[in-house]
Design a protein that fits this description.
Helix 1 (2-31) packs antiparallel against helix 2 (38-61), helix 6 (175-188) crosses helix 7 (220-237) and helix 10 runs antiparallel to helix 11. The chain has eleven helices and nine strands. A hairpin with a 4-residue loop joins strand 7 and strand 8 (206-214). The chain has a five-stranded antiparallel β-sheet. A four-stranded antiparallel β-sheet has the order 7-8-6-9, covered by helices on one side. The chain is flat and about 110 Å long. It has 360 residues and is an alpha+beta fold. The longest helix has 34 residues, at 326-359. The chain has helices spanning 2-31, 38-61, 67-87, 89-105, 145-150, 175-188, 220-237, 263-267, 286-289, 291-320, 326-359; strands at 113-116, 119-126, 130-135, 140-144, 153-155, 161-169, 192-201, 206-214, 242-243. The chain has four domains: 2-87; 97-155, Roll (SH3 type barrels); 161-267, Alpha-Beta Plaits, CATH 3.30.70.100; 290-359, Methane Monooxygenase Hydroxylase, Chain G, domain 1.
Length: 360
């Protein structure tokens, strides 16, 4: 009796062993392989999910039951999967499809600065269902992919961005004088190609905006703070009072007096003494705030270098058969050897960086 029972369940045991081993190997090959970017891991996760569903179907087919029972179990499995997809379509399927859309658009990648609604930070991870941000307070925020698809995503370009500072000044200050001071403040803050805009002619104050180009995104927060402090130092050093739209100046004017700046004020716009605080060699806070996002961006860059090296090695090996000069052949082989060593070094760096990232 026991032998007959063992014989009946032997196919099921063999199937379980084979399926478990196959899934384990697939998990190692698809998920644990060093050098895969986040975008490359995404389709592999879907493949692993499909293999799991296929494994369940194979196990049902291997059950020691009659055909009608297996058909009923397969029908039940189909109904369960259909119900799950239907009930969770607003979250599960929608997030997966949103993830597909983001990867096809390729609007951002790990290490980029993005702003979504009220959230601002650097991308640390792009998963199957979510995207992880590291905010300016160093915390990690998980945003569903569907949320990123239905809301506008502002991506800071890797080539640089414009940093601005808004300030409100009274009508008694000539705008020519203000523009000179703001341009000098933006230049001393370390911004390139500074410019000044007049934003608003309000009821009680004029709105100005000092802007400049930031090419080093790793200093984004530092340059924002530096621009504001330089604007303060330049305006206060020139004796100019900074007001807000809710601040009302009251002056006792003479009869038939005018509140507009005089010609003497306009001509003296460049003669004001500027007592600006020099830029100190302060410690940059970005390295502490965006440590995980910075590591993710470096990992992504190293993976791109690995892919480029792999393509170069493949092209060089394919071209060896066409080379007839022995010296040229040795040179190409030496170059391939150098690229191989570089590829191994990058793979080790990526693996170590990911181990540290997993500990965070």
């Amino acid at each position: 009796m026991s032998f007959s029972l063992f014989r009946d369940y032997l196919p099921l045991l063999i199937t379980l062993t084979v399926v478990s081993t196959a899934l384990w190997l697939a998990h190692i090959l698809l998920s644990k392989r060093a050098g895969l970017s986040t975008a490359a891991r995404f389709p592999r996760q879907l493949i692993l999910l499909g293999l799991t569903v296929a494994a369940i179907v194979v196990i049902i087919l291997a059950l020691p039951t009659d055909v009608s029972t297996r058909n009923q179990l397969l029908t039940l499995l189909g109904l369960v999967l259909t119900a799950m997809l239907t009930l969770s379509s607003t979250t599960f399927v929608a997030n997966v499809m949103a993830g597909f859309m983001q990867r096809s658009v390729k609007s951002f990648q790990p290490g980029d600065f993005i702003r979504v609604d009220s959230w601002f930070g650097r991308v640390t991870e792009r998963g199957l269902f979510h995207t992880e941000l590291q905010t300016i307070d160093r915390d990690l925020v998980t945003l569903p992919n569907l949320y990123l698809s239905v809301n506008p995503v502002k991506v800071t370009r890797a080539s640089g961005t414009v940093i601005s500072c808004d300030v409100s000044l009274g009508y008694d200050v000539p705008h020519h004088r203000v523009e000179v001071l703001l341009l000098e403040a933006a230049s001393m803050a370390g911004l390139k190609d500074p410019f000044v805009r007049v934003l608003e002619l309000g009821n009680f104050a004029i709105g100005y905006q000092a802007s400049g180009f930031c090419t080093d995104l790793s200093q984004l927060l530092t340059l924002q703070t530096r621009l504001r402090t330089q604007v303060l130092d330049h305006l206060h050093g020139a004796g100019i009072e900074i007001v807000s739209p809710h601040f009302i100046n009251q002056f006792q004017l003479p009869v038939l007096g005018s509140f507009t700046p005089t010609t003497a004020d306009i001509n003296a716009r460049g003669n004001s003494a500027i007592v600006a605080r020099p830029v100190a060699d302060e410690r940059s806070p970005e390295g502490l705030i965006f440590d995980k996002a910075d590591r993710a961006g470096k990992i992504e860059a190293m993976i791109r270098d690995m892919e480029s090296l792999s393509n170069s090695i493949k092209e060089a090996k394919n071209g060896l058969s066409e080379v007839t000069n022995p010296a040229e052949t040795e040179r190409i082989k030496g170059q391939i050897s150098v690229w191989d060593e570089r590829l191994k070094t990058l793979a080790e760096l990526v693996e170590n960086a990911r181990e540290h990232q997993d500990k965070d």
